[in-house]
């Protein structure tokens, strides 16, 4: 019994750490999401052109925040785990260095590192690689501080730390999301050819767990290829219910929290998820509490079944949300919108039912 309690507390510690990493950037993720949505609406209604300097500058600000998210997370990790800030920033700097990034994110190119082929992976907007690598840095940095003489520590410690951390980053931590995502994608495509409704349940339930480990980026090249080759994509519509199930679950948590800061963060996370960005709700509310996350996963499966049945299609690259819904206008559009509502209600209702007491109790 005691061993079981220790395991539970270990899991809770990990989830609390994830919340601590993301909480400081919630407001900025919300701001970037709102800015991105406003630009999409203005351009979609032909009020501004995507070719204007105004659009390009503010689009760079909103998209840039998410693209360089590993840097922002590295700063939070350094503060939380008391690692050297500039040394921690070496990790996302290497991950997002343009020349290397262009190779690693291009499936037609490859490189080897220490004689070992490096798996192609998406590093921009990623979460898992920078967290795992920074965690390893924490354990490597401690003996360096202890055993390296102070007179040479300033330049020798960064070299030794990077010699250990960077190989793991590019050979193990980076490809993790790609390995998981590729396996799930192959299974999804096999299920879709057999039964679109079952595949909708499958992908609707799994997409947010995939987001939590950065594996969802493996689906993007497939969706983009579908758009360019056949003119539409059938994967993205299945995510709609899952997005709004996370929003509904976070809103339920906001109503259950008594702590003012937790309540505020949960409301902001629910709003951000409503705009289509679920990471704040995932990492700061639903996943650390686990039960709301499971409720949202169930809601996502229900919503995915609806869009799978409807055969909804996506006609331009846009993750599903109320502000990007015009990209899904076509056959099955009504049920696509309905799946958002069902996902939201399911996530909210199940969380309210499962978490009957105040969440601090």
For this entry, give a set of tags.
single chain, 361 residues, mainly alpha, 15 helices, 73% helix, 1% strand
Give structural notes.
It is a single chain. A two-stranded antiparallel ribbon has the order 1-2. It is mostly helical and 361 residues long. Strand 1 and strand 2 form a beta hairpin. It has 15 helices and two strands. The mean pLDDT is 86.
Q: Provide a count of the helices.
A: 15
Q: Please write the string of helix (H) and strand (E) elements.
A: HHHHHHEEHHHHHHHHH
Describe the largest sheet.
2 strands, antiparallel
Beta content: under 5%
Straight-line distance between termini: 22 Å
Structural class: mainly alpha
Low-confidence stretches: none
- Strand segment tally: 2
Overall pLDDT confidence: 86
In short, what is this structure?
The protein is mainly alpha-helical and 361 residues long. It has 15 helices and two strands.
What is this structure's SSE topology?
Elements (H helix, E strand, L loop, with lengths): L1 H21 L3 H19 L8 H15 L1 H13 L3 H11 L2 H7 L7 E2 L2 E2 L10 H20 L2 H45 L1 H17 L6 H11 L10 H17 L3 H15 L4 H11 L1 H20 L22 H22 L7
Antiparallel strand pairs: 1-2
């Amino acid at each position: 019994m005691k061993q079981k309690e220790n395991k539970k507390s270990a899991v809770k510690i990990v989830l609390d750490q994830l919340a601590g990493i993301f909480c400081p950037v919630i407001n900025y993720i919300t701001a970037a999401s709102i800015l991105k949505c406003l630009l999409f609406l203005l351009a979609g209604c032909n009020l501004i052109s995507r070719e204007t300097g105004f659009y390009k500058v503010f689009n760079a600000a909103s998209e840039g925040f998410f693209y360089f998210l590993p840097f922002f997370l590295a700063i939070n990790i350094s503060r939380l785990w008391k690692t050297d800030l500039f040394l921690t920033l070496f990790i996302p700097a290497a991950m997002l260095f343009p020349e290397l990034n262009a190779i690693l994110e291009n499936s037609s190119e490859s490189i080897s590192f220490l004689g070992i082929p490096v798996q192609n992976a998406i590093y921009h907007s990623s979460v898992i690689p920078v967290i795992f690598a920074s965690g390893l840095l924490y354990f490597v940095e401690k003996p360096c501080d202890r055993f390296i003489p102070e007179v040479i520590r300033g330049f020798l410690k960064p070299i030794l730390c990077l010699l250990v951390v960077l190989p793991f980053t590019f050979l193990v931590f980076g490809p993790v999301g790609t390995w998981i995502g590729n396996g799930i994608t192959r299974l999804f495509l096999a299920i879709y050819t057999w039964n679109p409704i079952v595949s909708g349940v499958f992908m609707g339930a799994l997409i947010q767990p995939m987001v939590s480990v950065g594996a969802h980026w493996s689906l993007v090249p497939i969706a983009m290829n579908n758009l360019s080759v056949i003119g539409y994509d059938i994967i993205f519509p299945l995510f709609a219910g899952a997005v709004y199930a996370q929003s509904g679950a976070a809103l339920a948590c906001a109503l259950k929290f008594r702590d003012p800061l937790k309540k505020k963060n949960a409301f902001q996370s629910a709003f951000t998820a409503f705009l289509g960005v679920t990471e704040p709700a995932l990492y700061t509310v639903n996943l650390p509490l686990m039960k709301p996350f499971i409720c949202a996963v169930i809601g996502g499966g229900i919503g995915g079944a609806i869009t799978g049945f409807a055969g909804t299609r996506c006609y331009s690259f846009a993750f599903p949300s109320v502000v990007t819904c015009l990209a899904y206008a076509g056959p099955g559009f009504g049920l696509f919108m309905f799946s958002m509502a069902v996902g939201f209600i399911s996530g909210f209702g199940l969380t309210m039912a499962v978490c009957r007491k105040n969440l601090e109790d």
